[in-house]
Structure formats: C-alpha cells, structure tokens
Here is the input.
Amino acid sequence: MNIRSCLIHAGLGRKVRLLHVSDTHLSLADLRDDARKHELAVRRNGRFGGLQEKYLEEQSAYAREKGELLIHSGDLIDFVSHANLDKARAFLDSTDTFFIAGNHEFSQYHGEACEDTAYKINSYFQIRERLGRDLFFASREYCGINIVGIDDSYYRFEDWQTERLAIEAEKGLPILLVIHNPLYEESLFRHSMDELGQTDAGLVGCGERQLMRFNEYRAFQQRPDAATMRFIDHVYREKSVFAIISGHLHYPYASMLPCGKMQYVAGAGFEGDITEYTIE
Ligand SMILES: [Fe+2]
Here is the structure.
C-alpha cells in the first residue's frame, strides 16, 4: 500500500482528515458468472496486476484503524459480475465509505459498446440494488464539511445535477466535490497527452482544440454538451466548493483550475494508492 499525504486549504480554522481511494478495478468471477466473464476476469487481472483485492483490504483496514471516512471515487469494480458485486458490497458495508460510481461500475463486458445513457441504465438497477447506494448523486455531512458526489463517469453532467449542487450549497457548509472523471485543466491535459503520451485525456470539458488530438470515437465520447459546460461553470463560480477530488486516470495529479480551486486526481487503487487529506 502506498500512502500519499495531501494538504487542502479550505479556511476551516481546524483540521479534518479524510482518506481517498479510486479505481480498484476488482476483476472477479465465480460459478454464477458466465464463461465470458471468466475470460474477462483473467484478462483484466493481467491488466491490473491481480492484487486489487489485497490492496482494497489493506486500504479498508487502514481506514478502520485510523477511524477516518474513506471516499471511493469509482471503478471499484472493473465489470459487472456476481463475484465483483459481492466483494464491492462487502467492502462498502465493512468500512465507513462515501462512494460514487465510475464508468466501469456500469460495464457489462469491457469495451463491448458505446457507453451512453442507455448502456448505463441497462446496468443501473442491478448495481443500485447490489451496492445499496445511490449512483448519480450523493451527499454526506462529515465533520462540518459537505461531501457531494456527482456522477460524471460518461463525461457529461446534466442540469438536474447543477440544480442539486446549488441546493447542497444552501446548507451553508464548505463542499468537497467528488467526481470520477476529472475536469479539464490545461496542465493536466498536457501531462496526459505530451508527457505520458496518452491518446486521449479522459477529462470532462475539453474544447475542440483538445478533442481534435483524439481519435474520432474518443472525441465523440468526451465532447461536452451545453449542460456539462453549465455545470463546470457553476462549480467554478460556487463559492462553497473548496476543492474537487477525482480518479479515473490511474496516476496522481494536483492542479489549480482556472477558477482558482484545486483539483486532485487519485493514483491507482489497484496499485495500492491511498491519499490521506488533511483539510484545514
Ligand atoms: Fe474510470
């Protein structure tokens, strides 16, 4: 396990500690799952190193030992299987967690289809029931902070989510925004594309100048619609939101958005990364 420390300035005048894990990518299958899921489990465990369960147990034990809330920002499972959902539920029930979904929570078979709302809804009811959590929006007051989780796992926000965030702000508490896919920010984009040599950036809110560097499908997938840009503009202007934490990219990064708020990207949970935030 790899513990990273991070200090967030929120003007609280006291210290609040929180833990953050993202992108565990559990890749399990058992006798209830079909042959295709078993093949997928073998292939994806190869991709993620096969230690996802071990690291999740270590991260979970660490949170229990510290008595701190553990935020998991999605891709807890890599694909929908009985074995993955049982393991994910056991984790959520055994540890004090705040969870939001990532794109993989809705993935039946990796890379099989265009991930749009219809594909997401196809898995939604099963995942919602088996994990026992809301998946598109969640909030929780913790030590005087309002933790608000919003699903952006398919690179879009909807207007109702903007409205709900505005309603959360009426509570008058500082808001820590939790999303799966990070928001577009220039240095993060360049780090991904130019330094790491990725073929797409995996960020929400890219403009055409950025999207033209991706292949046609990735540009289509990650092109923000008007509601998405309205949400981002709202986050920029909403004074209650003091920081944004996210995952999805599998490498840690911290940078300042143009509005002056900090955005933190968690490292890969499947490699044992856990971030310990001190918010003050
Ligand atoms: Fe993801």
Q: What stands out?
A: The first strand starts at residue 2 and ends at 8. The chain has one domain: 2-279. The longest helix spans residues 52-66. The chain has a mean pLDDT of 97.
